[in-house]
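Suppose you are handed a protein chain with no further information: no name, no annotation, nothing but its sequence. What can you learn? This example shows the usual starting point.
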Amino acid sequence: MQTNKNEAGAVDIKWQLAGFRASVFFKDDRAPTSVWEQLFETSPKDVTSKPLQKYIMEEGEVNSSWIRLISKSNRSDLHVIPIAHNEIGTIETPAIGNYADIKDEINKIVISWLGLQSNVIRVAQAVSLANKIINQKEGYEILAKLLPNIKLPDPDNSSEFTYKVNRYKTSKNQDFKNLRINRLASWQCIEATTTFKQGNIEISQSALTPFIVTDIDVNTDNKNKKTISKKNLIEFYKELDHIAQETSIKGDIE
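A reasonable first move is to predict its three-dimensional structure. Written in structure tokens, the prediction is:
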């Protein structure tokens, strides 16, 4: 796999989206709410309700991906999970899709979902990106471009490389001046199993596959206690989404 770094500092890499989560956190505890039918105008395939734990989970297939909505007293989450379209045991790795190609489609769903939320004080986006590699040496070569300030170990005498850092940014939102955005990213070169949905079952493939992986979690800081309007909530989300995309192609930028 060939990768190049262009003049803008972006690494040309075709990330596969292996997992996605959007989250909102509420100012006060409240009863969990069911929003699937409002969001998709259809019934979910499965519903799990735990009234004593103040927990509702709704899930089903949407646009060839598995969507899971989780509502708790203090937060709500929207997850997107890969669905397997191949036989178990084959070498193809299930993914939601090419990150660059599918992110806009997912963001449309998330923005509609955000419009159903209220009394929010914090928002987050997390993506798990993976790229299958030939071997560890190739993985280290790619990571060297994404982590230019980090001295990577010798691939012949090491394994399971992981680097993790939180790079703070200040939000550009004028209604929340100086609000910190956490940009937490981890970078790995590993051999791993893969997990995906097949029917109603989550399955892990037993064969180890070499990957480079990055997990990016971008979120507004938990020190904010001011309620975020729906307009600002969407603006914040778009800002977080931009930061996540930038991190995925430029790597560990300060």
